[in-house]
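Anyone up for a design puzzle?
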């Protein structure tokens, strides 16, 4: 049997969400927060989008919305929900190579960085640098620091569950997670973590400046969101100076 990796895990019928209410609440919170970063009429790439049941929150702001996910089962479900939609296109990451440079006003990557190895992160950021317009923005959400372990995640979930009335299901769900493939993968592969200095260095080397946001996207405020912009290239700076 093929060894499970993170993409393989998201292709399975996993139980990260303890029940349907948890999934709906999670998607509503995350997508509402993402939508706040989107200018009206923007072209948006949601990289690692997942099976988002609140995607309409983004559709209301975006003129074009590319939902991109490495997991085939995720893409298959989204394609079934949005066949021939005038605003939405569902793609695999490798299909982004078909887009010309400067195609997007906003690229969002939420709760994905922790599943990417360092070389994968570099390649992904290089792709975003190409795809973003010069004045575009990259929204990196749910960045996990070295302090953001499983206990921290469990506390954030239980806090949300108490507020949103699925506490019992959350307790049972955490018990199931303790013996699930997710825990095994997290132990074997680990999560890629970044403190603020580390993520700033990674982004700087990829050609981005960044600003740490006061709130993280979604419910887990022990993780962090960064708003990033492309650093002006020398040729662009010289052209702007010549036009002024």
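Challenge accepted. My sequence:
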């Amino acid at each position: 049997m093929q060894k499970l990796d993170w993409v393989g895990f998201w292709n399975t019928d996993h139980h990260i969400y303890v029940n349907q209410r948890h999934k709906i609440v999670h998607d509503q919170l995350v997508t509402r927060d993402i939508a706040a970063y989107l200018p009206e009429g923007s072209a948006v790439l949601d990289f690692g989008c997942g099976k988002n049941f609140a995607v309409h929150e983004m559709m209301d702001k975006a003129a074009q919305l590319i939902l991109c996910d490495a997991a085939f089962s995720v893409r298959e479900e989204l394609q079934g929900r949005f066949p021939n939609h005038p605003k939405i296109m569902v793609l695999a990451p490798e299909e982004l190579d078909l887009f010309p440079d400067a195609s997007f006003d906003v690229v969002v990557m939420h709760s994905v960085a922790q599943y990417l190895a360092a070389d994968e992160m570099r390649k992904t950021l290089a792709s975003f640098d190409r795809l973003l317009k010069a004045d575009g923005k990259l929204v990196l959400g749910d960045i996990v620091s070295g302090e953001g372990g499983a206990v921290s995640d469990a506390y954030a979930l239980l806090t949300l569950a108490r507020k949103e009335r699925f506490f019992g299901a959350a307790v049972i769900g955490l018990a199931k997670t303790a013996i699930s493939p997710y825990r095994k993968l997290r132990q074997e592969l680990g999560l890629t973590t970044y403190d603020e200095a580390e993520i700033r260095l990674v982004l700087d080397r990829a050609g981005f400046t960044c600003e740490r946001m006061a709130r993280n996207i979604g419910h887990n405020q022990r993780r962090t969101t960064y708003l990033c912009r492309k650093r002006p290239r020398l040729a662009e700076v010289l052209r702007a100076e010549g036009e002024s």
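A detail worth pointing out: Strands lie at 42-47, 62-68, 88-91, 104-110, 132-143, 208-212, 224-230.
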